[in-house]
Structures are given as structure tokens and as C-alpha cells.
């Protein structure tokens, strides 16, 4: 685990200015197991930090008694809380003394105040912002230190890897959907549902007013098969199941045994026999009147 480069990621001090003047703050603080309490903002040294009262915790409850006095030097009279706990600038701290670090915004108490909660009053001048590269997370067996920045960077890498995996999974899912849709489209193009034949093309619309994809209908007058593609009827092939049958007129027997052969010398022609009550307009067919 490597160390961060020194001075490359400094602590920032954001001080209140003209648009954000110093702010009077009443704040409850807690004394940790080292006798320290952290203020939200950096206090203004000239106004000092006052401990007004003890609000709870396990500290010495007799230190702050909530006494007060009247300051007659003010315009009118003003009641000032007179704390029995007071600030010192240096030295060994007594039970009722505290030391304020006006650079870091930290109050140090006598160890007897561990666990206590106090209400304090001070003038806030701004904030210290500590870089994540300077926040201690744990000390490793080899003596190096893992910082919060390293933990966050590792977490972000994990999140990015998860996001990439999710993106890849979504891409694969979309590809699979496209393949499925393409396959379904291919099936739709090949789909055939055979319906009963009709007399003419115009009869398709009346016989099958609400067709479905793939329906196939043959018209008897032409023998043409039509398929419904979802929008319109399209010609697809010639039917082999229409009325009538093929006739070969020739002086030689045809190779195709599925036709009727009329042995007529010196004529080679293929025609069709149709059954109808009226003569067909197509002169190339043999008419069988019925």
C-alpha cells in the first residue's frame, strides 16, 4: 500500500467573508475518550468559546452550575451566564478548565469530562475541509496506512465494474432480443395457413374480411395463390390444386404421366381442360361444359 504524495492534496479552509459574515453559534458538543470535542466551525479567537451548561453524559456534573450575573455596563441590563468552567491558554487542565485550538476548532478537556455533553457558544468563522487522502482508515501490519481515499477509490472501481457488467448484460440481452425478433420475422415470412379457395381475387375480401398473417388462398379462375403479409394479399405462386387438369396435344407420348395426352399428329401444345357452364375467354384451354 503506497503513501500519498505530501502536499498534493491539502486541507482547505473556507472562511466566511462579506457575503457570509461571522455567525454566532450555539452548539452541543460531546467529549470523546481522549478528552476532545470537535466544533462544527473554526471559532473566532477574539470572542472566545464559552461553555454554558452541561446537557448530559458521564462527565463531572458539578463543574457547570448555570450561575449568572447582570452586566450593568451595557445599554440597559443584560443577564450574562457565568460559567464555573473557564478557558485557559496552556498548562495542565483542571476539572473545570478547557483549552481551545483556534486553528483546528477542537476543545480539550480534563479526562474527568470524558462522555460529557456541553452546550457551548462561539463565533463561527468558517470550515476546514479535510481531503479523503488524509483521513486515516486503518494501519496495516507492514506499517503503512490505508486512507479513506483508497477505500473510496476501490469502492468506485467495484461500482464501475458492476456497472460495466450490467451494461454488457443489457447489450447481450438486447442482442438476444434482436436475434429472436429476426428469427420471428423470418418465421412470419415463411408462415402459410391454407384456406379454402375462392372463385376470383375480388372474392377474397368478402370471404376473408379479417385475414391473419400467412393465410394462403387460391383463386379458381386463374389458379394463382395469394398470401396475406399482414397488410395486403400478394401473389406467391400457381396452385396445382385448381379445378381442371393439364392436357398435352402431341403425336408423341409426354414424359409427365400427370397430364392427359391427346395424340394429334404434328402438334406440340400444352393446354388445360376446365369445367364451366360458360365458354372461357382463354382460348388455350379445352372447355368441358357442365
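Q: What amino acid sequence fits the structure above?
A:
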Amino acid at each position: 500500500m503506497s503513501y500519498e504524495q505530501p502536499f498534493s492534496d491539502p486541507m482547505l479552509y473556507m472562511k466566511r467573508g462579506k457575503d457570509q459574515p461571522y455567525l454566532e453559534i450555539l452548539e452541543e458538543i460531546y467529549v470523546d475518550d481522549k478528552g476532545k470535542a470537535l466544533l462544527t466551525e473554526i471559532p473566532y479567537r477574539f470572542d472566545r468559546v464559552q461553555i454554558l451548561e452541561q446537557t448530559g453524559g458521564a462527565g463531572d456534573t458539578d463543574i457547570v452550575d448555570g450561575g449568572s450575573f447582570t452586566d450593568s455596563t451595557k445599554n440597559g441590563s443584560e443577564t450574562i451566564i457565568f460559567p464555573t468552567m473557564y478557558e485557559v491558554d496552556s498548562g495542565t487542565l483542571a476539572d473545570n478548565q478547557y483549552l481551545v485550538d483556534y486553528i483546528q476548532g477542537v476543545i480539550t478537556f480534563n479526562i474527568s469530562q470524558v462522555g460529557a455533553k456541553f452546550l457551548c457558544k462561539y463565533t463561527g468563522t468558517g470550515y476546514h475541509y479535510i481531503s479523503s487522502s488524509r483521513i486515516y482508515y486503518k494501519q496495516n501490519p507492514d506499517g503503512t496506512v490505508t486512507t479513506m481515499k483508497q477505500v473510496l477509490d476501490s469502492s468506485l472501481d467495484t461500482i464501475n465494474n458492476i456497472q460495466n457488467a450490467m451494461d454488457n448484460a443489457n447489450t447481450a440481452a438486447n442482442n438476444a432480443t434482436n436475434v429472436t425478433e429476426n428469427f420471428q420475422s423470418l418465421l412470419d415470412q415463411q408462415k402459410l395457413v391454407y384456406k379454402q379457395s375462392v372463385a376470383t381475387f375480388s372474392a377474397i375480401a368478402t370471404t376473408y374480411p379479417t385475414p391473419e398473417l400467412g393465410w394462403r388462398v387460391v383463386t379458381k379462375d386463374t389458379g394463382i395463390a395469394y398470401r396475406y403479409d399482414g397488410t395486403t394479399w400478394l401473389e406467391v405462386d400457381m396452385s396445382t390444386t385448381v379445378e381442371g387438369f393439364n392436357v398435352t396435344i402431341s403425336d408423341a407420348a409426354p414424359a409427365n404421366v400427370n397430364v392427359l395426352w391427346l395424340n394429334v399428329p404434328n402438334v406440340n401444345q400444352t393446354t388445360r381442360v376446365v369445367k364451366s357452364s360458360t365458354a372461357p375467354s382463354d382460348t388455350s384451354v379445352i372447355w368441358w361444359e357442365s
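Q: And what stands out in the fold?
A: The chain has two helices and 21 strands.
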